Amino acid sequence: MRYQARIRKAQKLMGERGLDVLFIVGRENLIYFTGTTQIECMAVLIPREGEARAVTLWLDAHYVGENSGLQVEPYFFPKENLVGKAVEWLRKSGFSNPRIGFEKYFVEFSVYEGLRQAFPESNFVNAGDLLYRLRAVKEPEEVEKIRQASRIVRRGMEAAVKAVRPGVSELEVLAEAEYAMRKAGSEGPPFRPQVVSGPRVLLSHPHASHRVIRNGEVVVIHLGATFEGYCSKMCRTVALGRIADGQERVYRLLLDAQQAAIEALRPGINAGEVDAAARRVVEKAGYGENFLDFIGYGVGLRQSEFFPIIGKERTELIEAGMVVDLLLPTIYQPAIGGPRVTDVIYIGEKENEILTTYPRELIYV
User: Fold this and answer.
1) Of 92, 130, 196, 244, which is least packed with CB atoms within 10 Å of its CB?
2) Is the pTM of this model over 0.70?
């Protein structure tokens, strides 16, 4: 019944947008509407009125139907394929010129090609924002899964910090963290995890390498885990021996900025105001020009969902039940920049809960 309720909410938003069909093939949205992570070779078709259909490989049809509660249209590969079966069902359901909404970034070209051969391409609409808004406010069961993923991330962080020492490579530290998280129940990382050191800490999207960690360096550890499809993540900074005074000051500054944002985060405020609370701390210290425009995103079935986005002048309204991460950007300035911190936070009616319960102070090893 939970997944049927989500479909009804989607249908209401479809009516407001003038969409006839939602064509869902992205992993996160398939999990959201079916409740199962067994979503390979699958699509979910949601008409504006009536019952949704799952289109899946015939081998998985019984399992998907039993676990999702949806009616299933199986296709027999290689004689049939996913998009062909989906088009067949749409036509059988009376759609000759439908206005189709789908996820902008998650549609394979073969699927898109099949759709545009069957229906006018001018009727295709990006519905990604609709789906992110739909998923933004979490149900209690979703929050509990993120909470469990957060417990797993903590296990990974404990293992990583324990492994940091001179002469060990970034990948060796990451291996310890990933092993600990897998043993604790993680289904895998939701993004390419990061253990970076020395000059690599100022890269925009760094990842663990064969570089050997040296004494006197900052080590940034950014980990993520998934539990039943739901994500959590955490970033901490380790000082290996004596590091530059400037880097210590930067970490304390970022911690103060993060705390200001957490205190501002509450139902009814807009995302730009949360960002401004952190930005004021950074600007007062003279580093406003060295700081990025975004400090957080929604967290759920993706590690960075695009509603809400916590950033400069963003207008999304924060609601109770949302889960977001704060802060991650560093001060982008050579010699002092690089330290980072981020946490996942549940926004309650009266108070917030930091789900990633691990000490936030600079870690000295």
Assistant:
1) 92
2) yes
